[in-house]
Amino acid sequence: MNDSIKEILISGDQITQRCKEMAAQINEDYKGKKVILLGLLKGSVPFLSELSKYIEAEVSFEYMNVSSYDGVESKTLVVKQDVEGPIAGKNIIIVEDIIDTGKTLANVVEMLYDRDVRSVKVATMLDKPEGRTFDIKADYVGFEIPNAFVVGFGLDFNERFRQLPYVGILKESCYK
To answer: Which of 35, 43, 123, 172 gives a 20 to 30 Å CA spacing to 56?
Structure first.
C-alpha cells in the first residue's frame, strides 16, 4: 500500500467484480442496441477500461474533458475537449469515476440532450451522496462511499495516485 494512503476502501478485485455485475445490467438494458461509452477525462479511464471488458453490446468510445466554473450556483460548463464523432440520435452512457456534488455531470447530461441524443444514462464507479448539491443520480453505481478524500483507480490529488490499483482514503497530511 502507498504510504500516503490511510486505508484501502475498495480493492482492485472488488472493482473488477462490480464491473462485471454492472456490465451484466448494461448488457440487459442495451441488448441489440448500439451505445457510446462517453468517458469523462481523466479519472474515468481505468474504470471505463475495466467496465467495457464485460459489455457485450456494440459499443464505441468517446471522451470529453469538462469542468464547471467554481460556485455552486453556476451552470456554466467549460468543454476543454469535446466528442469527436456525431452523437445526435445515439444512446450514451456517461462513464464517470465519482459523483460528488453532481454539478459537472448535471451540466454534461443537459448539454447532451441539447445535442439531440436518443438517451443518456450514467455509470459511475463511486457515488458520494453526502456531497450532492445537484439532483442527479447514476443509473449504474459501482460503490456508494462515505464523504472521504479518495484516490486511486483514476481518482487523483494534484494529478497523483491515479495509477493505484485500488481506491484508498488519502491521509489528511497529504492535502491539508
So the answer is: 43
To 10 degrees, the CA torsion angle through 126, 131, 133, 138? Answer: 20
Is residue 107 within 8 Å of 77, Cβ to Cβ? yes
Phi-psi region of 154 (alpha: psi -120 to 50; beta: other; left: phi over 0): left
* pTM score of the predicted model: 0.93
Strand order of the sheet with strand 150-151? 5-10, 167-170, 150-151
Catalytic residue among 13, 29, 82, 100: 100
75-117: pLDDT as tens digits: 577 899 999 999 999 999 999 999 999 999 999 999 999 999 9
Q: Is 100 a catalytic residue?
A: yes
The three cell numbers of residue 130 are 453526502
